Amino acid sequence: MLANLVDRDLAPAIGKAIVSLLVVRRKELLDDGKGEKVWLGIWSDPVREALRSEELRQRVVTYVLPGLLKPSCQGFQVFCESLGLSADGGVGKIGDADLGALLCVLKAGKELGFVGELGDSETTGKASKAPAVPLSSELVAPLLGHAFPHIRVSALNLVIQSAAITRPLSRGALFLLKTMLPSLHAETDAEIRDQTISAIRNLIERIAQSSYASEKELKNVQQKLRSGNRPTPDDIRKMIQLDSRIGDAKEFCGWYIGFLETLLRPGSNYQRCIMGLRALGFLARSGMDASLTESAFAALPGNGSIISRGEPFKKNFFKWPEFSKEMRVFSPGVKKVLLEAMSNPFEDVRAMSSEIVRLDPQWDKEEITGILDRGLKAMNETGRARDSDGVARSVALLYEVVKRGDLTFNEGDRIWGTKISVADSETMGLGVIQWVLDVIEQEYLGVAASDLARAVKERPVHGLFEAVGRILGSNDKVYLAEGSEGATAEWTKIHERIFKACEEIWRITKAPLCFDSPEGHVPSEIDEEDEDMNTQTVMSYSWRAIKESSALLGIVLAKAPAESLNQTDFGRGGKLLLQQLSDIRHRGAFSAVSPSFVALCTRCFKSPDPALQELPRAWLRRNLESVMEKSSAITRRSAGLPFLIVGVLASEIDPNHPLLSSTFARLDEIAVLPPVPSKNGEKIDLPQVHALNCIKFLFTDARMSPLVVPYIGRGLELAVSCFGSEIWAIRNCGVMLFTALTNRLFGLRKSRNEFTSNFTTRSFFEKYPTVRVVLLENLRDKVGRLEGGEAASVEMVYPALSLLARMEVAPEYEGMEEFRPLILECMRSRIWKVREMAARAFTALVGPKQAVDVIRNLLSVGPEKQNILHGNLCAVRALLERRVRQAVLEEQEAGEVYGNISLTFQARFQDLVERNQCSVTRYVILQILTANATPLLVSEGLAECVHGFISSLRSVTEECNTSSMVGRSLLKEQLVAFILTCAPPAKFSNVFLSLLGEPDEEVVLYSLTHLLSLPTIPNLDASIQTSLWTLATTHPWPLLVSNTLNVLHRLSKTLPFTATPENIRHLESVLNNPPTEPIKETALALLGPLTTSTSTLTTLLPHLRAAAHEDSPFTLRHAALTSFSALAPLLKLTRSAPNAEELIPAYALLFDYLNDDDDELRILAAELTQLILPGDGEILHLPLVAAEKLALELPRCYPGSKALLQEAITRITGGMDARETWKRVATRDTILFRREKQNLWVHAPWAVSIWAAVAEMVAARLDGAEMEMELAGLKAWVEAAGECVAEMERREGSRATVGGWASDEGVEVFCTRVEAGRRLCGL
């Protein structure tokens, strides 16, 4: 019954039934005098197994556990102990599955009141009853840093949740949360981030409710004392306790806000930023900051309220104590990082930060104009999307705060040198829009019209178009808010300016975007010798400008009030969008214009004005005419023509869709037109290509998906009919249409060899009967011509066969009989690929019950007819993959089915394998036997044939040389795989050794490759290492050497591994001068297991460090870490004995691996850290936690080590000269397509703080003179760096300026290094 909980619909009923039955059984047992343990024995084992299952765990926790645990506190305690919980509340060495199960049980027990709180003695009275299971920091703290996310989240919920939400968290619990929350705010998995944020919401709610209840209770006690009652010691103690609880809550809230600020500082990775923003947004709406109550909910639907019990209340808004009036979520630091995050590289971060920061009601004019000035400067310098999007969001923020009255401007105020006027209080927001349009016209379009080169380099306009679009498209209230009678005329003027700006930018950028050459176009007026100007930069400027301007135009045409637009405006806008879609050749640009055209058509169709309703129909007619007019230009999938047609059809609101019907008919009519040569006979106008591309787009566009179902049959018929065209362009379009339709019908194939589907031949052809007729006619027409080698015949036959191959057999369907002779004829074709596809299609003619007999007939063909034999063998292979397995699953015994097939292979083995001289057919038969060796070789007769054949082989090379030249390489590779797969286990080592001794190096390579492809390497003699080492050190072929080293590395994990000093020296020489990268990687991975001493480790370490660089490819970093992991015995740390100082760089390198960009490598590094840290290593830690534990363990294992101190100092300073580092980070990179850093995970400020703590711990063990000597270099670095920062502050202003010079990631990290160095040096 527990296994059936996977069914979501049945789970509640099953859980209820299980609980009811077991509760009744418990009562019966207790009545009989039997204890709880007997009852637990009935269900504990199966429930424990279900809890171990990831699939069942949550259902068991929801529907079963509460009912089973509730009856008995004692039973709960016994069940926890069975899962590995000790009597003192700790856990020993238990598996991760058991640990996850235990946490689920503890969570359920906590909800029932059976599990205590962290620090119970702090939050409960002495007389309180002790819980059945106490909760201790020793249990929870390690689990909050566990490597497996479900364990971390469960542990967090265990700390936060309580049966009574007003019960305060103890000071110990809050301290533990402060310690562990940083690592929990860097989750890489989106689902785990959701769960963590949910837990944070519960935490904030509990803090709010418990502190509010404590304050209320405190006020009651104080009120009692004001009545004249003498305070008792209990009253005094209670007041102190309640006040302490409130103070703890206030202090934690302040800490958490400050912590969230650190997550958003420049350089933080995506995970930290997004977690910080989500938590900050929740805090702003939680009521923690009383000053935000109105602004936080004003922008939400219904003012953020929902109805509960007939009364409105604000969702996620909690009651807080009085300290909420002092709490400030938007502190200066938080506001600064939020504003700077609007130019973050990640779009999610930019969007969320702009949404959150607008909740702040307090704004300063200089603050917001400063961020705009600096944003425009950055956008002009770089032209990057992040900077332009940041400007757009900053302008939208300016509009928001001005519109709601939080900020006002005076007459004559300017931003970016352009006057802004918002004197009229009724139309405050219009002034911002007018200011943006002024800047566009004067500063950007004016420059572009006179000097395009300067505009491309210094005036990218797309960000400002986006800004206006964000204002007008933010919500439907924009026009309403500015909708007074006086504003209508202003809106009309604004719209006219927008139209003119869009037309002007189209005029300027039309040439690059409409240029036919795929290399792009640079206008003649631009200097070709200018290194900063090329087709890429010009195209980027152009398509981004058109993308944002067309989006703005679409917003105006879709949302502007009818009073401010007229029919001419709609026609004008439609004409511009039509021009762009029909003329643009850049796919990114015309796909960006399409949404605006769809929005325009939608509004016209919905308009009550008949004249507007007619506009899309007129555009559609014009678009269909373009199909014929542009018939000579057939490149780039017909460019924007499909978007034009689908744009109108997707907007049609008539439920009968008459436009779709007429359009498809017209496109169909054009598609079947016979091609007509042009007058000069050199070029053909092909409107059929445009028509077919448009039809394909109808079937692939998601908006049209449910509407075009009735046309699928005709689409398939049309596609198949195109296969026979004499013109390649039409055949190609037919294949693309055919592929789009088959993918829609059958789904995308996961691999090239997957041909299964849910359609049977009967269901498919009954649904699309015309397709069957067209397939038959074309196959009948073309199959006979295959022998002539006509390309058109092959191009028609192959897709038709592939369609048949995608269908499942319907054994009683007679409609396939007409296909049988055609498919059989294709199986005899002289064209290899046709034979293979026909063989797959043949499976649609054979039912599972017929498979064995058909295989027997197919194998009866002799080797004298090789084409027929090859087609038959391919059919046997396909039948074994599809039909034989169905036969076994449906009704027949596997042994009987495969036994009969084995007898057939046994009877034909000599003719098809031993006597056959064709390499290709031998390759296929050996491939079949190899792939099905396990079920087929159960038959003793076939096994004897196979083993006898293998034993009789003198050499793979000689055996292959007796076969035909064509396909010999395929046969050689397959014969090696056949020998190694079918060789008896006892002889495998000798067989493999004999293959390594083959003179043909290809045979040796295939042997090694096959061995590496196996999940586990079979038992090999240790002596085989000698042959492998000889190959690795002497063979000249790099690919073979690489595979040999890989095999040696695999063997090092299973065999006693040895290598001579010469072998080791050879590997070291390979690392210094690698022939190829794969050899370098395998040699590096292999040196780890061969490193047995500290001295050899120091030789290997530079190579490991070089490979760990973020610019190294993943495969090289993985190989280095694999090698590193083999050094765990040498790296084991201990506090009881001295540790070799030569190993300190190795631990520092492991710290780097724990902060690698790839999650897989971080986990591997965490596993290595688990092995080398002191103790038993019971828990695998999260890489961030493991990195911190490793770093802080080093000062304990190397007390007073000067080498460790210098390593820490190097990590603090970055190991470079202060002035050189400052010059590098302070120079702004303005390259548009710059190379981004490769490690997006590492958080440099956090790493600096960790190494600063390490340095402080080591320095504390040194005497004054020693410490001063060791810190002298750091002190000099800090002084030089401080001078650089001070000089910048004198020149550019305060570091605290929003968006200023300190907002760059490199500068932020540099300043963090300086501050850490100052603290360490006591400056």
From TrEMBL:
Keywords: Receptor, tRNA processing. InterPro entries: ARM-like, ARM-type_fold, THADA-like_TPR, THADA-like_TPR_C, THADA/TRM732_DUF2428, tRNA_methyltransferase_THADA. Pfam families: DUF2428 (PF10350), TPR_Trm732 (PF25150), TPR_Trm732_C (PF25151), Trm732_C (PF26523). GO terms for cellular component: cytosol. Residues 39-350 form the tRNA (32-2'-O)-methyltransferase regulator THADA-like TPR repeats region domain. The keyword Iron-sulfur does not apply. GO terms for biological process: tRNA methylation. The keyword NAD does not apply. SUPFAM superfamilies: ARM repeat. Transmembrane segments: none annotated. This is Putative death-receptor fusion protein-domain-containing protein.
